[in-house]
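User: Sequence in, structure out. Go.
Assistant: Echoing your sequence, followed by the structure tokens.
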Amino acid sequence: MPDVLAFSNVTLIDGRGGDPVVGATVVVKDGLFSDVYPGPADLPADVKKVDGTGKYLLPGFMNGNVHLLDGIMMMGIGGVEYLARYEGSFPRVMQESTQLSLRNGVTTVFSTWDATEPILEARDQINRGEAVGARIFAAGNIVGMNGPFSPDFNFGARQSISPTFADRLDALFAAGVGGALTMMSEADARSALRDYIARGVDMVKIAVSDHLVQTIGRTSYLTFPQKWLYWMAEETHAAGLPLLSHTTSLQSLELAYEMGADVMIHPTWTNNLVIPDELIEKIAADRVGVGVQPMTDDYSGRLLSKGNWWGLLNSPQHVQNEKKFIEAGANLMIATDAGCTSHDVLADLGEDLHADRPWTIGEDHFTWIKALRQRGLSPMAAIQSLTHNVAEAYNKLDLYGTIETGKVADAVLLDADPLADSENLRSIVDVYKDGRRVDRDNLPTHALVTAPTGSPIPAL
């Protein structure tokens, strides 16, 4: 690949929220945006030029909340066979997930819950160029939560699987900062968190409230004393890492704000309580990353018609919470919870539940935009929620999220105007990561989860 390339005569939508620049020239050198011109530019003859006539250049898309091992399946049907089938290949499954995202324009993902050691390995292999994929920033475990066969996810599966297998997987996910922290002294818990941060995670996600929806239903318990939340925040910020919150109630959301969370994951899910205006306004004013997880009204209806409880998350109160954050101008960012879903689970769902499924990675960000547009999100705000806002929330706006001089050259080239219709975000011509064109036709490079049923695991 050449060291320098230029997009010429392109309509630039740079992610900062201003008017598009028609006929712009954007120059990339050594993986960075080196120059941005509002019109034609004199360029050396040997510069590789990409003709942008009739095309639209946007920053590379970002997803602020994924689970590259499918977290939705961990909570029910399909999780046991998924983990057993791919136990020796978790980093490769994670990379396959990022490749499905990259193929559709997502150049950076934030994994907010995955098995810690495998996700760090997958991240590092991509960073070293040993594997292809979207750039990964990883939290590993959610502090205070146990593994996939615990009450936090699918405790019922323990009745029919080997305890040795269940314990091994639970320990892999808990990574020393699971529910055992709640039984420790404060000094020991603080030491465990410090040890966990030292393993090289990119952010810390705290279970402010529980994750017991599969086990005991519509309840919400606080995981840690308020005093503990404050020192957890201090330890995280002292390490220079973003602090994320997992909340499932209004009380836990209030605590997440008070502890200084930088990113709030599914803050609109409040057990069907409407968030007070005062709290909405505080979160919006402080530019906290608001990672809502919507679904389209049509998809919610299809789920409920089949007795699927996930449709209840689209309750009128939760929809109202989404609308209130939009109206307040909050730092709304895409946060889909998606992962690489088993082909068996997708087959069981039936074709009528495939379209607009929020948790199928690769299509998830488009569905997220579609759902939030139904709530009143503008086309420009939709683009920013997929680019600028994610980078801002995670304190990475110095490198990612917009097309500006000196930033990493992640970009998506479209052949239709995404401001005229947000569905045009799907009209991808090319994707660039670190200034290099992605070979989208050959992704995923080694299909595991997306391979046909019964296919052997391919060799690297």
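User: And one key feature?
Assistant: The mean pLDDT is 94.
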